[in-house]
UniProtKB/TrEMBL annotation, chain A:
Coiled coil: none
InterPro entries assigned: NO_sig/Golgi_transp_ligand-bd, TRAPP_component, TRAPPC6/Trs33
Name this protein carries in UniProt: Trafficking protein particle complex subunit 6b
GO biological process: endoplasmic reticulum to Golgi vesicle-mediated transport
Pfam families referenced in this protein's UniProt entry, alphabetically: TRAPP (PF04051)
GO CC annotations, alphabetized: cis-Golgi network; trans-Golgi network; TRAPP complex
Originating species: Geodia barretti
SUPFAM superfamilies documented for this protein: Ligand-binding domain in the NO signalling and Golgi transport
Lineage, opening ranks: Eukaryota, Metazoa, Porifera, Demospongiae, Heteroscleromorpha
The family this protein is said to belong to: Belongs to the TRAPP small subunits family. BET3 subfamily.
Record localization: Golgi apparatus, cis-Golgi network
Main localization of the protein described in the UniProt heading: Golgi
TrEMBL record, chain B:
GO terms for biological process, alphabetical: endoplasmic reticulum to Golgi vesicle-mediated transport
Record protein name field: Trafficking protein particle complex subunit 2-like protein
Swiss-Prot/TrEMBL keywords: ER-Golgi transport, Transport
Phylogenetic classification of the source organism: Eukaryota, Metazoa, Porifera, Demospongiae, Heteroscleromorpha
Native source organism of the sequence: Geodia barretti
Subcellular location: Cytoplasm, Perinuclear region
Main location: cytoplasm
Domain of life of the native organism: Eukaryota
Family: Belongs to the TRAPP small subunits family. Sedlin subfamily.
CDD domains from the UniProt entry: TRAPPC2L
């Protein structure tokens, strides 16, 4: 591994641990049965981060041709900056919906495989949802992002563009 | 080619930052007019993406000379997030080079991105960051350096 990839891995680990701590802290604060509240908090955190991160990552990228171009940028450069990997598959109906598949989502990799914690795992996707809405809204695409765990640690993000 | 005024305009065309070389100067109001007038030209340049002009990449952030006035020349730059940077330079006979302008804008963009990553800054608010202010000062300095070379 080259020096830069080692560095990227290191900061990635730190981010994962920080994220885990944030999730558990928020859960403790909110108490049991307040999953919606926790997810909302995480999303708003992600929104702010996404907004600033996209300004930095798209600095040397030429202006986006269209909506698809912007979403592809999110799947590639943006996702690499945030999670050190690409989105594995992007599907679109060429109207207002984009579906992003990640076959090994970073924030789910430390959770056990199998269906036992599937409900809880949902919370770990909220931050990334917020990240995407923040980034896309800053480049001028108002959208709603929902996430779903398909089979651990794979998940899908559905981006619905609001007109 | 000495830069006399730097402005940052948000995507909703709200002024985030405006600073001229001599803050106590009476020309300040004039700069506000100049910058305000340039917004229309920027919108036009950004929206006519489909019809590229010869010799310029239509997807580039740097928009080139927006318009010249008697005393000043106004240059523009638009980021992917539709934040606009406006630079007003003195209108001298010597031709200012695009590469130099691009470099100034690039520095400004870097400073802006750094500033936005500051957790104490709320996006859409006026820019009061000292680091950003310093970066703008160095841009004024740098643009003076370009003149002496010519």
């Amino acid at each position: 591994m080259s020096v830069t990839t080692v560095q990227a891995e290191t900061s990635q680990c730190l981010f994962e641990f920080l994220h885990m701590e944030i999730v558990s802290q928020l859960q403790q604060e909110a108490g049991p049965d307040k999953k919606g509240e926790v997810q909302q908090r995480l999303e708003s955190l992600g929104h702010r981060v996404g907004e600033s991160l996209v300004e930095r990552t798209s600095r040397d990228h030429p202006r986006f041709k269209n909506e698809l171009d912007a979403v592809v940028f999110m799947c590639k450069q943006f996702w690499v900056t945030a999670f050190n990997k690409n989105i594995d598959n992007l599907k679109t109906n060429h109207q207002d919906t984009y579906v992003l598949h990640d076959n090994a989502f970073r924030l789910l990799q430390h959770l056990s495989e199998g269906n036992q914690y599937r409900e809880e795992a949902q919370t770990y996707l909220s931050f990334a949802c917020g990240l995407l809405t923040g980034a896309l809204s800053n480049v001028g695409i108002k959208c709603q992002v929902t996430a779903e765990v398909t089979k651990m640690p794979a998940c899908t993000f559905q981006v619905k563009v609001l007109l | 080619m000495a830069a006399v005024c730097v402005a940052v305009i948000s995507k909703q065309n709200f002024p985030l930052y405006l600073r001229s070389v001599n803050p106590q100067n009476e020309a300040d109001l004039q700069f506000q007019y100049l910058v305000h007038a340039s917004i229309d030209v920027v919108e036009e340049k950004v929206s006519t993406l489909g019809t590229p002009k010869a010799g310029q990449d239509p997807r580039e952030h740097y928009l080139g000379l927006l318009y010249p006035s008697e005393q000043y020349k106004v240059y523009g730059y638009a980021t992917n997030t539709r934040v606009k940077f406006i630079l007003v330079v003195e209108n001298t006979t010597s031709q200012s080079r695009d590469t130099e302008m691009k470099m100034l804008f690039k520095n400004l963009h870097v400073a802006y991105a750094d500033m936005l990553c500051n957790p104490f800054y709320t996006p859409g608010q006026k820019i009061t960051s000292r680091t950003f202010n310093n970066a703008v000062s160095s841009i004024f300095q740098m643009s003076k350096g370009f003149t002496s070379k010519e």
